[in-house]
Amino acid sequence: MQEKERLSDLVASLEDAYEIVRNEIQKNHGVKIAPAQIIVARDETGRKHGHFTTSETWKGSQGYHEIFMSGQSLERGPVATLGTLLHEMAHAVNHAEDIADTSGDGYHNKKFQKTAEEVFGLEIKKAPRVGFSETTVPDSTVQRWHEAIARIEEGLKLSALGFGKGKTGRNKNNPVAICGCGEKIRLSLKTLEMCRPKCQECGEEFSVEN
Asked: Quick check: is 168 in a domain?
């Protein structure tokens, strides 16, 4: 039987990444994050990368929330996709802590910025109409969540929709790997794991710092 690529593989990778981040945040920051059902679909408006549903959409013993991830936005690659996921998880933390981080029209206030930056390591800038919502994933955060990024990268390649395929060129969002003498290179996690490049000066392997 021929192996088929499925959207469910991508959803599973996003759910795994969510749990990797969720477990670390709950352990090291002492905050609660509700479990979430991840939905991937095309955003017909073309305006959203993601959305956190505050209501308990999926009823159960734990009270699952829902996170929507725009299919189009996944084409930006694994790092930007993680940025969207962390953005929505910041909303999840604020919801659990009963912190109002947006207004009714979707305007993100400084309470959202504070959680996104201090808890998840994102860089948040103010944007027209939506407030403190523009999300960037700095190198330090790429390195912090490299395991989650690798899982998302795997899911994007397995997806039947082919997100991340067909694009060439250097990905500036790939994680930074460092050798023993401090030289840095930027490669995908898959390439680092498969090729295990070594520094010609000190002889040590390049690795992503946690």
From this structure: no
Q: Is residue 80 part of a domain?
A: yes
List the beta strands (DSSP E) in 79-163.
Answer: 123-127, 131-136
Backbone angles phi, psi at 175, to 5 degrees: -65, 155
Please list the residues that pair with 38 across neighbouring strands: 67
Do the domain assignments include residue 124? Answer: yes
Give the Cα separation of 163 and 173 in Å (integer).
Answer: 16
How far is C-alpha 83 from the chain's CA centre?
Answer: 4
The residue written with tokens 């912090």 in the block is: 144
Considering the domain architecture, whether residues 66 and 151 belong to the same structural domain is answered as yes
Assigned domain for 17 exists: yes
**Domain housing 182:** 176-208
How many domains in the chain? Answer: 2
Q: What is the pLDDT along the chain (210 residues), one digit of tens a residue?
A: 344 456 788 899 999 999 999 999 999 888 888 788 888 887 766 677 888 877 665 555 566 788 898 887 888 889 999 999 999 999 999 988 889 999 878 899 999 999 999 999 999 999 988 999 999 999 999 999 999 999 999 888 866 455 444 443 334 456 777 777 777 777 666 666 666 777 777 778 777 755
Q: Are residues 67 and 133 both part of a single domain? A: yes
Answer whether 0.85 is exceeded by the pTM.
no
CA proximity to 65, closest of 77, 55, 78, 75: 55
